[in-house]
Task: inverse folding
C-alpha cells in the first residue's frame, strides 16, 4: 500500500493556488485527506474480517486464528487512529473557516494564524507517513496469513510458521499504534490553544460590530429627531396668527411665540381669491349678454 500514501499539501503550494484562496484550498485538501483516511481504515478492516471468516472454515489453523486475533488489535488501533486523525483535521478545517470570518475585521491576525495553521501540514504529513508504514506492516501480515490459509486449504503443506516469533512481532505492531496516538497529542494541544484564541478574537470582533451598529442606530435616530424639529419649525412658521407657549424645565410659562407670515396659507388664500374673481367675471358676462 505504499502507493496509497496520503499527504497534505505543503503551505507554499496552498498559497500558490490561483483558483481559490489559501484557506479554501486548505479546507478542500483536508476533505480529500479525510476521505482517503476513512477509505484506508475501511479497506484494512474488511480485509481482516474477510480473512478471519475464511479461517473459521479451514481445519487445523488454530495458530493462524490466534495470529489473526493479534493482528486484529492493530487493525482496531488503525481504525481508531484514523478516526482521531480525521476528527483533528476537521477541527483544523473549522479553525480555518473562523479565520476566514475574521479576515475583514482583523486581516493581520487572520493571515498570521492561517500561516501558522498551514505550517502544521508538515507535522501532519509526518504522522501520515508513519501511519502509512504501520498500515503496510499490517497488510503484509494479512497477506502472509492468507497465504498460509491457502496452503492449508489446498493441503499443500502444514503451517510451518514459527508461531511464537511471528505472533510476538504482531504484538509489537500494537506498540506502534500507541506511539502514533502519542504523536498526535501535540497537534491536538496546538489546535485547542488556537481555537481558544480565535474565539476570543471573534467575540471581540462581534462586540465591536455591535457597538458600531448601536452607534449607527443612534445616529439615525438623532437625524430623524432633527428632521422632525426642522419640519415642525417650518410648519409653525407657516401658521399665520397662531401662538406657541414656551415653558421652562419646571413647567412655568416663560413666553409666547407668534406664528409666521403664512407661507402656504397665503398661497392658498391667493388661489381662492383668484377663483372668486374668475367666478365674478363669468357672472357679469352672463348678465351683460342677456
Result:
Amino acid at each position: 500500500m505504499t502507493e496509497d500514501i496520503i499527504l497534505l499539501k505543503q503551505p507554499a503550494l496552498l498559497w500558490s493556488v490561483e483558483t481559490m484562496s489559501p484557506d479554501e484550498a486548505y479546507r478542500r485538501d483536508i476533505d480529500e485527506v479525510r476521505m482517503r483516511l476513512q477509505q484506508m481504515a475501511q479497506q484494512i478492516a474488511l480485509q481482516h474480517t474477510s480473512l478471519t471468516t475464511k479461517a473459521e472454515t479451514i481445519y487445523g489453523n488454530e495458530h493462524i486464528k490466534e495470529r489473526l486475533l493479534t493482528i486484529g488489535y492493530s487493525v482496531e488501533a488503525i481504525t481508531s487512529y484514523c478516526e482521531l486523525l480525521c476528527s483533528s483535521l476537521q477541527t483544523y478545517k473549522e479553525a480555518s473557516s473562523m479565520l476566514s470570518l475574521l479576515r475583514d475585521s482583523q486581516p493581520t491576525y487572520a493571515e498570521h494564524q492561517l500561516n501558522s495553521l498551514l505550517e502544521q501540514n508538515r507535522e501532519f504529513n509526518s504522522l501520515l507517513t508513519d501511519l502509512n508504514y504501520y498500515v503496510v506492516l499490517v497488510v503484509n501480515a494479512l497477506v502472509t496469513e492468507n497465504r498460509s490459509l491457502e496452503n492449508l486449504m489446498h493441503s499443500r503443506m502444514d503451517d510451518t510458521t514459527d508461531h511464537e516469533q511471528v505472533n510476538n512481532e504482531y504484538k509489537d505492531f500494537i506498540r506502534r499504534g500507541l506511539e502514533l496516538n502519542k504523536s498526535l497529542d501535540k497537534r491536538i494541544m496546538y489546535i485547542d490553544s488556537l481555537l481558544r484564541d480565535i474565539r476570543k478574537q471573534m467575540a471581540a470582533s462581534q462586540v465591536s460590530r455591535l457597538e458600531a451598529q448601536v452607534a449607527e442606530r443612534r445616529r439615525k435616530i438623532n437625524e430623524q429627531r432633527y428632521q422632525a424639529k426642522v419640519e415642525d419649525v417650518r410648519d409653525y412658521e407657516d401658521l399665520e396668527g397662531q401662538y406657541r407657549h414656551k415653558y421652562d424645565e419646571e413647567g412655568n410659562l416663560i413666553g409666547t411665540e407668534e406664528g409666521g407670515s403664512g407661507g402656504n396659507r397665503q398661497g392658498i388664500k391667493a388661489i381662492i381669491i383668484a377663483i372668486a374673481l374668475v367666478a365674478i367675471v363669468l357672472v357679469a358676462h352672463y348678465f351683460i349678454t342677456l
Q: What stands out?
A: The helical segments are 11-15, 22-56, 62-102, 107-153, 163-237, 264-288. Strands lie at 243-247, 253-258. The chain is about 80% helix and 5% strand. The longest strand covers residues 253-258.
